[in-house]
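Thread title: Can someone regenerate the structure for this chain?

I was given the following input by a collaborator and told the matching structure tokens would be attached. They weren't. Posting the sequence so someone can regenerate them.
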Amino acid sequence: MEGKMQVECTIPKDDGTLASFVGFRVQHDNARGPMKGGIRYHPEVDPDEVNALAQLMTWKTAVANIPYGGAKGGIGCNPGELSVSELERLTRVFTQKIHDLIGIHTDVPAPDMGTGPQTMAWILDEYSKFHGYSPAVVTGKPIDLGGSLGRDAATGQGVLFATEALLNEHGKTISGQRFVIQGFGNVGAWAAQLISEQGGKIVAISDITGAIENSKGIDIPSLLKHAKEHKGVKGFHGGDSIDPKSILVEDCDILIPAALGGVINRENANDIKAKFIIEAANHPTDPEADEILSKKGVVILPDIYANSGGVTVSYFEWVQNIQGFMWDEKKVNCELKNYMTKGFKDVKEMCKTHDCDLRMGAFTLGVNRVARATVLRGWEA
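Best answer:
Regenerated them for you:
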């Protein structure tokens, strides 16, 4: 099943003038369960990218083995130029237009670029006016409205478990490895914190403001404090400033791109010194770079497995809401570790069967699971 809905959302701005925005929801596949995917508020909404991201969610949920399909949506707007009350009105109008399209057992949105727990709270409230109190209709909610403990750290925590599983396979542990992390947003910051707690040495980090390196290891708690106060890593005294463009080719054992897509390409792939790349971002490696790196013997842990911790804990949030029973943080992390460890084993098994790399193994696993569900339902063409 594939579908796309576009809606026009008109709201009064604070000055009384009317403004119109285009909202949309793309639903890719629901063979394995209700569709799941983020809602982004961003000025350039590229339909091709949104379709690709909805599809990516279908494979990612299948690899993680959680009972969902893929979707994606958003509103073409610049959230930075809207006041909080304008954002609230826009979110509520959008929800009114799509309330029949989303639903606990149909399509469960989550936050994405430009949206967060507050956005989810407004969607939940507006949706509940039509359908009664339904906390399970969105995930990534504030804790006070049925959000899950551990959801904020989930993608970074998943990256840690995924990295542990991969290193384990190679007879190594996090401790004693040298890491470079590109991106210090939610995912990069949590990954950095959790890796350094496990004894990993983080030798370089970058974000939009700049990049820093320290071969002895960056003090992550101090950097987190600095980044909060100065809105970024730039100017941090516990390391030397370097050119952000060179972050990916710094000397290290493990490279974690946790920012934008397409950053590892044929221009820089030859110069990468890492032995392992953990794709915390969506689609950070170009196909051309994939080829170059594989010839060099670099092992890449693909995004559809490596960053699936976020959607897995979203699934836990949904389960808790449906049961009306919340878990403590220890249970959330323990369950997440089970899923990530089992996921790695399943991907690895595919690689053995088909004699392929981890990316191919992960995609084959995902597509196979979706295909089996499709056939079992009697949908096959």
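The first strand starts at residue 3 and ends at 12.
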